[in-house]
Write a structure and sequence with these properties.
Blueprint (H helix, E strand, L loop, with lengths): L3 H20 L4 H28 L1
Keywords: Membrane, Transmembrane, Transmembrane helix
């Protein structure tokens, strides 16, 4: 993956949008679960980039 931090930032932005949508909608739990999923994906990208950087 060439730009893991860019992908992580995008995942954090999507998670934030899901959190905001959940606050203004009746489907709070569903949007929060989707947001948490994207946030976990973002942290996984950050961790993977950190491991790759140490390996180099």
């Amino acid at each position: 993956m060439k730009r893991p931090h860019l992908i992580a930032a995008l995942c954090f932005a999507i998670a934030g949008l899901f959190y905001l949508a959940g606050l203004s909608n009746d489907y709070l739990v569903g949007f929060l679960v989707l947001g948490v999923g994207f946030e976990i994906a973002a942290w996984a990208n950050v961790a993977r980039a950190s491991r790759e950087k140490r390996a180099d």
